[in-house]
Design goal:
- There is one protein chain.
- This protein is of the alpha+beta class.
- The protein is built from 5 helices and 13 strands.
- The protein has one domain.
- Helix content is about 15%, strand content about 40%.
- The longest helix is centred in the N-terminal third of the chain and has 12 residues.
Amino acid sequence: MNGMMILKKIVITALLVFFAGGIVFADEIDLSTPEGAIAAARKIHCSLKDGEPIFYTWQGEVFSQRMGEPDRKLFNVVGMNVRQCVSINGGARGIGYRLVSREIMLYLDPETGKPLDNWHNPILDRDVPVFHVQNDPVNGRPTFPYTKEGKPSSFWNGRQDSGSWFMMLTIPLFYHNVLQADYQATEMFNFMGEVDDLIDMSRHTAQVNIGWVRLSAWLPWMEMQGREGRLYTHASGKKITDYEALPDILKDYINNKNPLYKSPPVGDDTRQNETSWTYFKKVVKGRKLPFGGQK
C-alpha cells in the first residue's frame, strides 16, 4: 500500500468515532469513499446506530403465469421486516457491519382483504391450507469497506438526479431446495430517497421508499410441485418510524400470533436463514413431502 493510501486511511479513520454503539462521521457522508458507501448502505438498510430496530413494510399482489392462459391474480400481500445492524471491526478491512432481521408476509383474500387460512387453488380446483411467510432469521453477511489486502471493496452504486437518489438491486437465486431439486427465482429491489437526507450524518437512518418484484416457482403449500408455470409478486413500500406505524392487519397478526416479530434478532445471531421452503418443511415435519402436484 503506497504512502498516499496509508495517509488517506489514517485521515478517514480519524473522522470515525463510536457513539452509542454506532458509527458517527465528523461531517456529511462522502459517497465516493468506501467508508461513505458503507455508511450510506447502513442508513438505507438499517441505522448507523448499533442495535436500533428499523422497520420496513410493503403491500402488493401475487399473480400466476402459465403457458396458454391469461395471468391470474391469486392474492394481495402485506409484509414487514424488522432489522438491526451491528458494527464489526474487520482489522485491515476497516469498520463494517452486519444486518440481522426477521420478516412476515401475509397472503390476503383479494376480495375481503383478510389473511387466508385456506385458499381455493383454481388450477387444481381444490382448497389447500395457506402458510404465511414467517422467516426468522433473514440475516446478511458482514460487509466491510476494504478487502484483507486493503483494497476498496464497497462502492456506492446508486444514481442521483435532481436531489433524489435511486438504487437497484437484482438478486438471481439458484440453490438446493430442501423439498425437491433446485430452486430458481429472482428478487428485484428498487430503493429511493433524497440525497440531502442520505448524506446527513446527524440522522442515523434515511427515509427510504422501495419497490419489489419476485419471480419464483410455485409456493410449497400450493400443491403445484411439478406443474408448469410460476409466480410473480409486485409490491411497494417504505421504511417506517416504528412498530406502531405498521398496518393494523400486521400488528393484529403479530400481537395475537407471533409477538417475536416486534423486535429484530440479536446482533450475533448465528442461525441459518429461513425461507418459505425451510419453514414449510419445519411445520409439516413427519408428513410426506412434497404435497400434491404431479411429476
